[in-house]
Design brief:
single chain; 364 residues; alpha/beta; Alkaline Phosphatase, subunit A; 9-stranded mixed β-sheet; two-stranded antiparallel ribbon; 11 strands
Length: 364
């Protein structure tokens, strides 16, 4: 058993002591004006950290901060994106369309005949509701999204398209915002769910939102594609090329954000790079740390993943081996924006703020 897993078992066995001890050594989480989460796909910690294909991500991790014991929530992808925004997977343990219901005949609802299949449209409070109630703005920037507010499940929907793009370059299974009913039904959805190219315009106009997800297309986020029109460094079979391509794109996005007035200003801004899950699924082993649901075979965690936190005024060279999950990130975002009530499993025992990466350690 790895030493970090032994430490994790101790934390779970004695949560009050562990949390009290941690509170005595970690400073308060400061207020943040902007937090941007860049999301990558299906790569484990050891696939990414200190590898020759990831010079940009590795450099940023060593310069700023790395959470070395951070875990996804569930396999496959969709439930992780939902969990980051709602504090729960809401029973979504597949990659079906955001509108799917039990026994739905749509080709995008392939798993809908399974027992205990969940309605994929979520009628629950979300981080977006919390931000709006506190007068804060949010946005989602998506690579290959065909137009603002698009409700496509995938785009292009076939390999035969005028642009000669790989099928499904954009995938709504990586867009957790669309699972929430208030986003699906919002008259101003197009102002919040936008193509990734809008990021440059928002930086130039100094209109960046307080919170955003930035999700490149499936060639640029390390997911990969197969079939017609797929370039060599987007192929599932070319893992090294796929990771290197995603690292280059991530480096460009971070550099772009660092040129913004928000980054250069006096207020705190953070850029988080994380992954939805480690693609290695071991269904009979626990692959998570905190906030998992006891008794749920589908919710044992989704593996250890690299999570880097880059701050304009915060810590440097921070290595944090505290056990974290996507619920920890949600809790941290809420607290950094002054939102005192935590959604779902962001309030679960053992789920703590990622304060050392956003505020730095106390002096010895």
């Amino acid at each position: 058993m790895r030493p970090t897993h032994l430490a994790l078992l101790a934390l779970l066995a004695l949560p009050r002591f562990a949390l009290a001890q941690r509170a005595a050594t970690v400073p308060a989480l400061p207020h943040y004006a902007h937090i941007f989460v860049i999301l990558e796909e299906n790569k484990g910690y050891d696939d990414i950290m200190n590898q020759p294909d990831t010079p940009n991500i590795t450099r940023l991790a060593h310069t700023y901060g790395i959470a070395s014991d951070y875990y996804g929530i569930v396999h496959p992808s969709e439930g992780n994106y939902v969990a980051m925004l709602g504090g729960d997977t809401f029973g979504i343990h597949d990659d079906d369309g955001y509108f799917c219901t039990p026994h739905n005949p749509s080709r995008y609802c392939r798993k809908s005949n399974r027992p205990f299949y969940a309605n994929h449209t979520i009628q629950a409070e979300s981080l977006m509701d919390q931000l709006t109630a506190h007068g804060l703005t949010w946005k989602a920037y998506y690579g290959a999204l065909p137009r603002p507010g698009a409700m496509d499940v995938e785009y292009p929907a076939t390999a035969e398209n005028p642009q000669h793009l790989p099928q499904g370059l954009y995938a709504s299974k990586h867009n957790g915002f669309m699972n929430f009913a208030e986003v699906q039904n919002s008259p101003d959805r197009a102002a919040h769910i936008v193509p990734l190219r809008q990021l440059a315009a928002d930086i130039a106009a100094n209109t960046l939102p307080n919170y955003a997800h930035i999700v490149p297309d499936q060639c640029d986020e390390m997911h990969g594609r197969a079939g017609a029109n797929v370039p060599p460094d987007c192929s599932y079979a070319n893992k090294s090329g796929l990771i290197a391509r995603g690292d280059r794109v991530t480096g460009r996005i971070v550099a772009q954000l660092m040129r913004s007035a928000a980054w250069r200003g006096p207020d705190n801004m953070a850029i988080v790079i994380t992954f939805d899950e480690d693609a290695k699924n071991h269904p009979h082993q626990r692959q998570g740390c905190c906030g998992t649901v006891p008794g749920s075979l589908a919710n044992f965690g989704a593996g250890r993943i690299a999570t880097i936190v880059i701050t304009n005024h915060g810590p440097r060279h921070e290595f944090d081996n505290t056990p974290y999950s996507h619920y920890s990130l949600l809790r941290t975002v809420e607290d950094a924006f002054g939102i005192s009530r935590h959604l779902g499993h962001a309030n679960a025992p053992g789920v703590v703020d990622m304060t050392p990466l956003f505020a730095g350690p106390s002096a010895p």
